[in-house]
Amino acid sequence: MDPRQEEETNALLAPVERWSPRFLVFVGLLAAVVAWGAYAYNVQLQQGLVVTGMRDTVSWGLYISNFVFFIGISHVGALMSAILRLTKAEWRRPVTRMAEAITVCSLFVGASMPIIDLGRPDRLLNVLVYGRVQSAILWDFLSISTYLVGSLLFFYLFLIPDLAILRERLTSIGRFRRWLYRKLSIGWTGAPDQRRRLERSIGILTILILPIAISVHTVVSWIFAMTLRVGWNSTIFGPYFVAGALFSGVASVLMAMALFTHFYKLDRWIKPVHFRNLAYLLLLLDIVYIYFTLNEYLTVSYKSEGAEASLLGSLYGGSFAGLFWTIQIAGLIVPAFLLAFRRTRTTLGIVVAATLVNATMWLKRYLIVVSTLATPQMPTGWGSYWPTWVEWSITAAAFAGFVLLFALVSRLVPIVSIWETQEAREPLKGTAKEIPAGEVST
Amino acid sequence: MVEPKKAGMERRQFLSLAAKGGGIAALGVLGGKIFIERLAGVPEDARVTASGGPRAWVMVIDLDRCDGCGVCTAACRTEHNVPDGQEWIKVYKVSDPDGTSYFLPRPCMHCENAPCVAVCPVGATYVRTDGLVLVDHNRCIGCRYCMAACPYNARSFNWDGPAELTPEEQVIYSPEYPVVHRRGTVEKCVFCAHRADKGELPACVQACPMKAIFFGDAREDAVANGREVWRLSQVLKERGGFRFKEELGTKPRVFYLPPEGS
């Protein structure tokens, strides 16, 4: 290994090798929020869902919104690792690990949300025992669990060579982690036939993961689209949700990149070019999302059929107008401008846009769930919903739990893939256009 | 199959008929036994028609008679010990744009093409042969997808209350007779299945002081309110009977007769 490679490897291993006191305090704070959420959930288990703001009219709320949000951002792993890999976008190398980690962490958090929403979580296994394939909930159950296994496998395959490095290099760590790295690296030595087998497995999984990922958010949207409800009864919900998932997923990776670059001193790997390339991707997805939004609302508004018209009225100028226009302006229009112009397309501008996108995409999911349920189906007034402290606490715990999982992953394995970034520096076999990640001038 | 018979046969109907035909052949012995029991004076089973076929329970609500008094809701509450905050038959006041208003009692519609039954992930909500849509509270996981799917807001959720039944309550409980309730499960009108099985009218029908609610069997083409018996097909035709949100294709088993003068 040349001295430069050696030095880079050590730099990437540093956060894994030594857990700083500051990190432990951070973990402690996050764990406290999660513990508070667990306390709130216990209150809900003891007293029932009466402790939430949900009632018979608006019977789903924050939990289901969180579910759609977290499952949404989980799509970025498949996008970054599979699509960018298939299209041979070499610049992807330092950021794919982050994207895959986001996928795994958000899937765990997202999948727990509908379980927390259940009136009888003690009967969860009924879904397996009595499961009916006619129900979209079963489709979700199947596709999300498949995606979870697939993403864990995907995350793990890319990890094996790095686990071997961890096994060889980290000697001053505790016995448990030494055992963990030894077991998980399954005897990887980097021999040619091992590499060939790894490449093949990755190649197969890259193709497999894409339809699974698309199916996941499609069937999440179908939970809503399979009903006769205004606002949900839409034929474009599948692609609309997939686009939204990728949109908020890319925004999440950008936010993670900014945080890790700052705290782990990764600017040697993650450079303005990565922010810029992902900013282009975010802009593209923003435009796609605007296109879908226009399709959804223009077609329905133009006809303004009875019940649809009353929902649209509340979105455009009624009780949901504040939320609706915040999402359109702060979540779609402003980011589009920030990302489109060179003067604002700085790393700071990009991160601001990504934060706006993520915040408003959460609001968007809330709006989709709540506004439709609040729309009267019978000759009555509008349903009302305001989440209680229990729901806010569990939501805070969901976000804290996601960050906690992500932070722990970044301290157990290098958050920038060592072998993938070094592989890029080996003599280029591809076209001259391929830009090795570490060599990009900025 | 509540609708008046159409010419030609849908595939589903054909299959179901074929299945029933096979069933009848296979159960010939059993049929003979029932026939002998009838001759011997064994009490008739209200769950089957005179010819031994399944019932097709329907309700007819005469909006011209309903004065919105809410006695049906109260009778239902007593009959099923309905939890506070729930109204299994809810009376809505409807104001038409022309200034007239009328009352619309809404029980569960027991749809033939029930969205709630389709979406239930565990089969806790199901349709009986006689068309009644019931909920098995021993199986319901409380996901509330059925509530999101129901176009008539006919379903309620037990947001609080005891989580488990006592052993005594468990003996009383059946999906046909949900008089004991537990937290985290979904409830609704069951067309008084326990009464229908005995050949009695639902509690709301019996209680209605205006005699506005009729109950009966579409196969026998008859509905009754405890005082009058009407030919279903005839009254629907003469009075312009309609089903709520017919355009959704849910095929409710509740028919409304419009208020006169509207």
Give the total of domains of chain B: 1
As laid out across the biggest beta sheet of chain B, the strand order is: 10-9-8-1-11
Hey, which two chains have the biggest interface?
A: A-B, 40 and 44 residues
> Could you report the average pLDDT of chain A, rounded to the nearest whole number?
93
Distance between the termini of chain A: 26 Å
What is the radius of gyration of chain A computed over CA atoms, rounded to a whole number of angstroms? 23 Å
Beta-strand fraction estimate of chain B: 15-25%
Helix content of chain A: over 70%
Brief descriptors of the model:
heterodimer, A: 442 residues, mainly alpha, Formate dehydrogenase/DMSO reductase fold, 16 helices, 73% helix, 0% strand, globular, B: 262 residues, alpha+beta, Alpha-Beta Plaits, five-stranded mixed beta sheet, two-stranded antiparallel ribbon, 9 helices, disordered N terminus
Please tell me about this protein's structure.
The complex is a heterodimer of chains A (442) and B (262). With 442 residues, chain A is mostly helical. Chain A has a single domain, classed as Formate dehydrogenase/DMSO reductase fold (Up-down Bundle). Chain A is 73% helix and 0% strand. Chain A is built from 16 helices and no strands. The longest helix of chain A has 34 residues, at 136-169. Chain A is globular and about 75 Å long. Residues 427-435 and 437-442 of chain A have low confidence and may be disordered. Chain B is an alpha+beta fold and 262 residues long. Chain B contains 9 helices and 11 strands. The radius of gyration of chain B is 19 Å and the shape is globular. Mean pLDDT of chain B is 88; it is low at 3-8 and 29-43. The interface between A and B is large, with 40 and 44 residues.
